[in-house]
Amino acid sequence: MAIAPIVDGPSIIQSSERRIVVPTNILTGIVLAVFGYWVGEQLGNSFLLNDAQNTGVLLGYSFASIMFLVGVGFANYPLARLFGWRVTPQPAGDDHTGAWRYLNLSLDHKVIGVQYLVAMLMAMLFGGIGAMLIRTSLLVPDPPIVAPDKYLTLVSMHSVMMIFVASAAIVGPFGNFFVPLMIGTNRMAFPRLEALSFWLVPPAIVILLAAPIFGGFQTGWTGYTPLSEQADQGFDSYIVGFTLIGLALVVSGVNMLTTVIRLRAPGMTWIRLPIFVWGVFSASILGTFAAPILAAALIMQGFDRTLNTTFFISSAGGSPYLWENLFWFFGHPEVYIFILPAFGIILELLPHFARKPLWGYRTAVVGLLGVTLLSWFVWQHHLFMSGIAPALRPFFMFSTEMISIPTGIVFLVAFGTLWRARISMSVPMLFCLGFLFNFLIGGLSGVFLSDVPSDVTLHGSYFSMAHFHFTIVGGEIFAIIAAIYYWFPKMTGRMLNQTLGKIHFWWMMIAFNMAFMPLFAAGLLDMPRRVSTYAVDLQTLNDWVSIWAFILFASMLFFAFNVIWSWFFTFKVAPANPWQVRSIEWMLPTPLGRRNFEKIPVFTGSPYDYGNPGAKPVADLGGPSDLGRRGFGAEPVPS
Amino acid sequence: MSQQSQQSRGLPNLVASAPEWSTDVDARVSSVGMWIFMGANAMLFVAFFFAFFYLRALNNADNWMNIWTVHPRRYIGGIIVLLLVACAGLVVMGARSAAKAPSTARMFFWLALLAGVLCCGFQVYEFKHLGFDPQMGGGYASVFVGLKSVLMAEIVVAMIWLGTHIAQATPIGDTTARPASAAAFGNFLVMLAGVGVVAYLVLYFI
Amino acid sequence: MVVDRTPRVGGRLAIVVLGLAALLALLTGFLVTFVFHFPTTLTAQPTTVGNGVSIHLETVAAVQDAIAFPRPNDPHPDWVSYLPTTIFKVPANSVVTISIDQEDGASGLRNPYWSKAQGIIGGSFHMSYFDDNGAPQAGDFSVIDPTTLAHSFGIPDLGVFVPLQGIADAAPAGSHNEITFSFKTGKAGIFRWQCFVPCGAGSIYGNGNAMSTFGYMSGLLVVQ
Question: How far apart are CA A373 and CA A368, in angstroms?
Fold first, then answer.
């Protein structure tokens, strides 16, 4: 992949010879982060604003995050501009090469995709270990193996970690890697923001993992006041960690939306956009506009805990309901940030493995955008049992149930695509079918929770816990694993072992359903969430669930083994198009170079046009050079 | 791969000449990106305005504005918001001349920086002479301190950003990306000024 | 570009993978150590008279100020606490006598109802204490002034509530009020008990930290 130097007249500006002298890499970042934490803590403690020393911890975390980003190299470009050095808009930060670049700031969207993938898998492992500890504790009803405050910390850390994973694990790895390829561009709109959206994640994970040092936090992922106002400094981890993830969502959303709006190649019209890009696009809309609400609410929490403001303290003019409203106004779009790109993956993969066009492409787009729109109007269903005005409940019950219509459309499209297809039962397809089965159960159980009368009894029980685990684990995680099996050859140049993959699928599918299906029953038997003990007569059921949960975790370790083994210890380069599919990313050579396309491609057909003898190829990769030179969507489509 | 790696070590001249990094592409994405970012940023303040009206309507424990709390002096708030509006206006005017007359743009930007720094200075003065305590002042005091601090933090960051535009508004600078970037930045400041005006009306008069 | 084999991964990559694995193991160990830190269990001692059991406890304003049961290396040396632990093992269908060295000052109740002794044998408890002049006093009480409460000992499921009077300001340094009471256990089971005085200083409404943590102001009574 040599890069053809193209002389480009007056718009070329050479990078300045002057550089920041301090080497910027991950080690500098870690050193500066430790220093930043120390400075922030000293500074915060010197204010003596609050006897719980929250100011020190909060400022420490914030300074550590900022200094980490500075050390990694994010200050170089703004500083160079501030010093008046002439800088090009192009990424000059790719000093690191080889494997080392995966551990450092890189502005190559493909490197960022791989970085995200590894970070998310590791975070998922942490969250999974938390889940295993929870299930270990629940082996015995009473007294618990884990003390109640520690148990709640465990639940909180498991849930927040998994929320981090779920909100970034599709748009991060696969969105960053494949959206530019799929829309035919060599760059993202804002490569530095794209890198920032990744580099905010490691500090968030580390800060969250630091919570036990300060006693943990017992609030669950919802951080409800006044529980959170009473919590130790451990809760500061939640505030800073979640703010960083919220920022990452905004930053990645701005970049992703602008890229899709502005940088589509000629011929890549809106109705030719791959459905996966639509999934990422709609999730990015939600991430961009919902996450700031969370950031604002977390800033209020931070002020309450340091400056002693009273946003959420009802005796002093605030209200815990303010938190509940702000949190869920973010929180409900957040769950669609999880699932919309997962829908995108499923609908993207089904046509390729069913060898049929995507049935009702436009309908599917309407479904995705319908979910995006409706998800703004349902947040109060989380407050049904919090004492909201009863007259409001029917509206939010109605709007919540409305969401099953666009979701149903997505299912209709999926089943229409599978109808009478010659289905290839390869591993990604198995996970897609597993998704359809699990998400159907998850979605249908959600209807019961959206109904006010049944929610009154099911609220806060293991029923709702089983519901969202069916949608997130059985749904989103299955989609992520399908995507990993499907795209791994393109991302890393190695095929994952398919035999191990099939074993993994059946192992995981059975273990997942065995572990989570009985939890619906546990919920109907009034077993409450987030409590370290339970009724003695539910022990058999819980032990069954725990044992299957351990088996489920073992299946994930088996998967991790497959990934590590296939990635690092098999040396056979994957074929360029192992699945024999039409989509454009598989038309490119497999170890992709720094530039994706020698010439900007011209899109001529749909990637899903299987079974049509007269189908045009998806794109002309060697199109007329003048067409693709500058063109990002503005040029007319060649007929 | 290795050949490319060696080429991209050090100064990436070859990549620099790739057409997708030509400055007019940046000019095209900066405007759209900024509009989206402004939408996201607006949502941040929407949360604070929601907090204002929500807590005001609830008036929990009769403590929305208690006896220790009065509106801060309107003229100081007015000066702050006027300086913010002036700053935004100057940046917009500067951005208009950034392509053809970089030195004029630079002068406008310097004036805008002055206005912005003064705005932050008056804000600090106002915080020091608030007349109420965020802890004792009830819901109003919380929203006032929260909203104004976040707005001021954004203004401080925006002033550093403005510094980059001052530094880059030189006659030898490029004439495509920088003016577009300055125009987008001007839009951002106009949005901040709009938030400032609304916040002034809401926090000082309601 | 399709080649059959590529060069093997470098040693540096192996080091990175191993380093990440080590980091993972370290963090997991840290989490596991944190999670499985459970307060120790105190088995009640048989009393010399009668067939009951007895437990001797101490309540302190801060763990570091303990006299009878010092607990060094506690993660929260400045929290209020019952000492030595809050997990008690007692036999079923027997009389449990608890004596408490109460060393903390008064903080008062929000709900005066909890200043009444309930569910204990005889309806009253014995207390030796210091009056406002610092003079030692003793007597049997069934209710005390709600503003003088430092802590309380309540097992809701057994109906047991005992108020613990705060040490008077005039009392000699290092002295304590001693409160003794007895109650009956029924069939085997696990019962939660806790202090009902919001004494978690540093948390809003006083219900955080020590109040919500086993080993400090709440615990279990394991009847078996």
Answer: 9
